[in-house]
Amino acid sequence: MIRPAIRESWRRSREAGADTRIPGAPQVIEDDMISEVRTAHRLAPHLDGLLQLLRRVTEQTEHLLVITDEHGRALWTEGPPAVRRRAESVGLLEGFNWSEGAVGTNGIGTTLALGVPQYVYAAEHLADVLHGWSCAGAPITDPDTGQVVGCVDVSATVDELHPATVALVAAAARLTEAQLDLDMRKKDEILRERYGRHVRGGDGALLVTATGRVIAAEPTAWYGRRLDPPRPGAAVTLPDGRRASAEPVGQAYLLRPAGQAASVSVRDVPAERPVLALTLLGTDRPCAWLNGRRIPLTLRHAEILALLAAHPDGLTGERLALHLYGEEGSPVTVRAEIHRLRGLLGSVLQAKPYRLDCAVDADFLAAQRLLDAGDVAGAVRLCRGDLLPRSDAPAIRMERDELAVRIRHAVLDLGALEPLWTHAHTEPGFADLEVLDRLHAILPADDSRRVRVAQRRRRLLEDDRL
Q1: CA distance 74 to 83
Q2: Helix, strand, coil in percent for the chain, rounding step 5
Q3: CA quadruple 304, 307, 311, 315: dihedral positive or negative?
Q4: Which one of 88, 295, 365, 383 counts the least CB within 10 Å of its CB?
Q5: CA–CA distance, 239 with 375 (Å, rounded to integer)
């Protein structure tokens, strides 16, 4: 009797175009690209833990360990020479695609399709060439995004693999998820230390990550909930149905229920220093957030605040004028702009020297911190575009160029798919041929994004020839 999960997998596989007569899995990553794709993958830092847990199984038995990405592309394999030779004949090795659409029902592709551990035995495989094999796979889910990032699989010939192996690979997957969860919680704690006090005011505010996870909240019962990923200034639905505005603070967001922004006057500094949050990346409409209040900024005011945020010890009128206008700058002109800006911000804007007397967090500074910490994916998510793209202020141009170069180099050095894809959809990365070339090389052949990247590359190359 055919198990329901297998019957459904056969249906999905046939609809995706899988053929029972294929000779084996297709190669989708060239040999010279394997190392680069592997190093960039989310699971690379946790490979040792997986291997230590499962290596004994492969060393003492005729089993093959396979670890794939979320698309079913095998990135790591390990096992005795004899089983590796047999596996090679069906494409069960690095760089080959084991999704259901490529080879039909199997322990990797079916696991990824269903999101739960699976065991596929002999003739349960759709492809005839795989009827001599059995495999057990388990998905690995990133606790931050809630998305599957890979699969751990143990495969062997029919007579060698026991159905209980599925419990082993499931345990290995859970161990890896625990390590990912530990990494995530460390980052959450840093965010709570920096911004957690702003949800303790009794107004029902929440602190939420860029991926939509609630990491501090009143009521505390909301802690751990997952919301839609917030966007600066956009409305978000809270767990009780109310709407809240998303106030960016660095790489996180404060969500305050509508009508419950903090009541402190902008001309007063409360006993507990407020956060002045600045949204300046990739926008022609820069804004500040102070005590839950959104303050639209002119370009000149945004430039001043960006410079004061980057110089927490303050700037004299002469230095600020030089940063804003170059050698022709005048402190008198700066003084007039500061007077108007103080009307918006109140006493948090101090003089002698000009400085911000509050906790300050700007998106471009948060992106720099993420790069310093090695969180390239987080930095790229935050950098939607250049710093104040319309600004001609000399110091802003310098800051903008430095951040853009750091982001580009970090993305290319990491080589990971999602940061590359995100960067390719920002203004700096949109026409970057090297970024597009890297994307085209690592995107799966059946990923629709690969066609879009190829089209953009072709247009850019044609434009260059004109």
Answers
A1: 16
A2: 45, 20, 35
A3: negative
A4: 88
A5: 29
Are residues 153 and 278 located together in one domain of the fold? no
List, in order, residues 6 or more apart from 353 with CB less than 8 Å away. Answer: 313, 314, 315, 316, 317, 319
Quick one: DSSP state of residue 347?
Answer: G
**Coil, helix or strand at residue 328:** helix
- Which residues form the domain of 122? 4-182
pLDDT tens-digit map of 113-126: 999 999 999 999 99
Angle, helix 317-325 to helix 394-414, in steps of 10 degrees: 70
Beta strands in 158-229 (DSSP E): 206-209, 214-217
Q: Among 104, 99, 142, which residue's Cα sits nearest to residue 123?
A: 104
* Closest of 45, 43, 46, 88 to residue 70, by C-alpha: 43
Q: Two tokens at 152?
A: 């751990």
**Whole-angstrom distance, CA of residue 437 vs CA of residue 453:** 8
DSSP three-state, residue 73: strand
Read off the pTM: 0.75
* 149 and 16 in a common domain: yes
Q: Which residue, 100, 211, 102, is CA-closest to 147?
A: 211
